[in-house]
Amino acid sequence: MDILRYVAFSTDPLGGNPAGVVLDAAGLDEATMGAVAAKVGYSETAFAVARSDGALDIRYFSPKAEVPFCGHATIATAVAHAHRHGVGELLLHTRAGQVPVTTSTRPDGSIAATLVSVEPRTAEIDDADLAELLAALRWSAADLDPALPPRLAYAGAWHPVVAAGSRARLADLDYDMAALDALMARREWTTIALVQREKDTVFHVRNPFPPGGVVEDPATGAAAAAFGGYLRTLGLVDTPAVLTIHQGVDMGRPSLLTVGVPADPSSGIEVTGTAVSID
User: Fold this and answer.
1) Is residue 83 within 8 Å of residue 58, measured between CB atoms?
2) 158-163 vs 193-199, strand pairing mode
3) CB 257 within 8 A of CB 272
4) For residues 211 and 208, what is the distance between their CA atoms, to the nearest angstrom?
5) Cα angle, residue 272 at apex, residues 268 and 276 outer, rounded to 5°
6) Nearest to 237 by CA among 269, 262, 264, 201
7) How far apart are CA 60 and CA 36, in angstroms?
8) For the chain, which end, N or C, has fewer CB atoms within 10 Å of the first or last residue's CB respectively?
């Protein structure tokens, strides 16, 4: 089995979010994929199988469980596929639905990929769940930004969006991992999108990921897409918009995600980033 290792959302192997990529996973069962992901140890490993039409079936496994969609592993897979087969358009069949991805070569020689998420959704978060979530985060209601209300957001996986009122609050992340893990498991949430607005379209983000056995994800494309849908649905950004998301800075793995938010409320959200091999 050829297990590739890439960093997504960075051109520096010391930044971004590492992902395992298996471009030929034909014949692997779930137990094997889970065991490989646990051995690789990254927040996600993607397993792809080529279809007769040139598209890919793809599944994503954390060290602890399978998730329906993962953005950074999608970017990593698309760039790894481009390194092997050339840049262009690629269609991924995920558990969440079809996700088209386009790769291109930038002037500096790096390869960037843009995915288009499934149609996003936003939902209210139950008051009791929010109280339990804040308690697990060790945050209070006074820590929140009232301009960005808590909601559940989806673009292939569900993520609660919780906005910090200050950059200092976001930087001080010290949560109860067991309590948050239990809550997220009950509600089938993938990560928590903790966000802080610097400017109209510039955000700082952190993503706790205890269900995957990971304290924090340094770059989370699925949550970025869900967040773009959240902003559009609540009218918190003028569309069409291009968002700049800085993530991973507080954990020493700076990542840059560019999120395109079309005006059409039924359209998918675009997430763009580079990826580089760390083998």
Assistant:
1) no
2) parallel
3) yes
4) 9
5) 140
6) 201
7) 11
8) C
